[in-house]
């Protein structure tokens, strides 16, 4: 299904950028000799892999949003999984779960920075492999939790499909009965459909707001500790920790702005039968796909050592390409001897 050019191109472009930027960032961090990030490199590698998995899902399961009166829906807009099947319904629920998975990965990063400042000995002793393994399991919990509630409680059953059928025909010319779609209907539906919708969104909202609260809590504790004049860290270490925390705060703000905020607006807009226009629904589907490419750039920007290394590497590749071109041209000039 063709929605518009932006909906078709932007998720694919950002996914390609993600596959380029994330490995490049890991390469720079892993080979840096000045910062000595230690085990934190493994968390950055874990985050990069998660970002690329999210981008892969964006390419395989592109999503678009449609709100109608008291119902919210998100559907697969094109690709191999557009047509309805039970497997495809699980797949779109799984794709939605990566929104929460991003917060689980961020929690691991905030907790790591917290232990660096408050109990570094514990971190040194237990992070590898137990801490990293726990972080992966925690992310897996978020993904499974969201997948279950999206599939069982927000799945597009027949009555909910009928409710938005006319609107889907009007805007996209498709029969929603044959589409892979998640639908939440708050009013004007069957008691079962309304109960499952409200319960599902409530459970997803609770986990989402807890995730945000944890980020605010650990972010405040970390920033307060760094701002204390009595800190026993050296100025160099304190400066590096401040840079990393700034990067982490921006990394947390990116999925909040481009993933969580559009979700909240789309979820709760139908409760009041509000209509903010189709632009918001188009933007929600597009914005979710951008954070895996934007996320690693925050780390590079806020840590000058990495930023300089990133710039030097780019310049090296440009110089090498220019040098090879010049050499090739010289070698093709015929000899006059």
What does this structure look like?
It comes from Caenorhabditis latens. Pfam families: 7TM_GPCR_Srj (PF10319). Keywords: Membrane, Transmembrane, Transmembrane helix. With 337 residues, this protein is mainly alpha-helical. It has one domain: Rhopdopsin 7-helix transmembrane proteins (Up-down Bundle), CATH 1.20.1070.10. Helices cover 74% and strands 5% of the residues. The protein contains ten helices and three strands; from the N terminus they run ααββαααβααααα. It has helices at residues 5-31, 40-60, 86-118, 120-152, 158-172, 191-227, 235-268, 278-287, 291-302, 304-332, and strands at residues 63-68, 71-76, 181-185. The chain has a three-stranded antiparallel sheet, sandwiched between helices. It is elongated. The N and C termini lie far apart (65 Å).
What level of helicity do the residues show? over 70%
Q: End-to-end span in angstroms?
A: 65 Å
* CATH class identity: Mainly Alpha
Total beta strands:
3
Using only C-alpha atoms, the radius of gyration works out to 23 Å
Number of helices: 10
Q: Predict the CATH topology.
A: Rhopdopsin 7-helix transmembrane proteins
Report strand order across the widest sheet. 1-2-3
Helix/sheet category: mainly alpha
Q: What low-confidence regions span 5 or more consecutive residues with pLDDT below 50?
A: none
Largest sheet: 3 strands, antiparallel
Shape assignment:
elongated
Number of folding domains? 1
CATH-level-4 superfamily name: Rhodopsin 7-helix transmembrane proteins
Estimate the mean pLDDT confidence. Answer: 83
Strand percentage lies at 5-15%
């Amino acid at each position: 299904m063709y929605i518009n050019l932006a909906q078709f191109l932007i998720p694919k472009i950002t996914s390609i950028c993600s596959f380029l930027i994330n490995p490049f960032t890991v390469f720079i961090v892993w080979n840096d000799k000045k910062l000595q990030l230690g085990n934190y490199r493994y968390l950055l590698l874990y985050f990069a892999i998660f970002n690329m998995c999210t981008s892969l899902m964006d390419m395989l399961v592109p999503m678009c949003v449609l709100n109608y009166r008291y119902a919210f829906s998100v559907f697969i807009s094109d690709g191999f999984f557009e047509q309805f099947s039970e497997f495809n319904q699980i797949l779109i629920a799984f794709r939605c779960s990566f929104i929460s998975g991003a917060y689980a990965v961020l929690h691991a990063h905030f907790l790591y920075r917290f232990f660096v400042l408050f109990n570094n000995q514990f971190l040194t002793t237990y992070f590898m492999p137990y801490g990293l393994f726990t972080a992966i399991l925690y992310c897996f919990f978020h993904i499974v939790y969201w997948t279950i509630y999206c599939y069982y409680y927000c799945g597009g059953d027949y009555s909910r499909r009928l409710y938005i059928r006319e609107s889907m025909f009007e805007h996209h010319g498709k029969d929603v009965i044959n589409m892979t779609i998640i639908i939440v209907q708050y009013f004007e539906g069957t008691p079962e459909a309304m109960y499952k919708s409200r319960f599902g969104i409530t459970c997803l909202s609770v986990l989402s707001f807890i995730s945000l609260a944890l980020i605010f809590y650990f972010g405040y504790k970390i920033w307060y500790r760094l701002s204390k004049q009595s800190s026993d860290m050296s100025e160099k270490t304190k400066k590096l920790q401040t840079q990393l925390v700034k990067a982490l705060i921006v990394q947390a703000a990116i999925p909040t702005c481009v993933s969580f905020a559009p979700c909240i607006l789309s979820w709760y807009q139908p409760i009041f039968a509000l209509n903010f226009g189709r632009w918001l629904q188009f933007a929600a589907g597009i914005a979710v796909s951008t954070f895996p490419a934007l996320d690693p750039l925050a780390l590079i920007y806020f840590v000058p050592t990495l930023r300089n290394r990133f710039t030097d590497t780019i310049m090296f590749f440009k110089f090498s390409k220019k040098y090879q071109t010049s050499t090739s041209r010289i070698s093709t000039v015929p000899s006059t001897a």
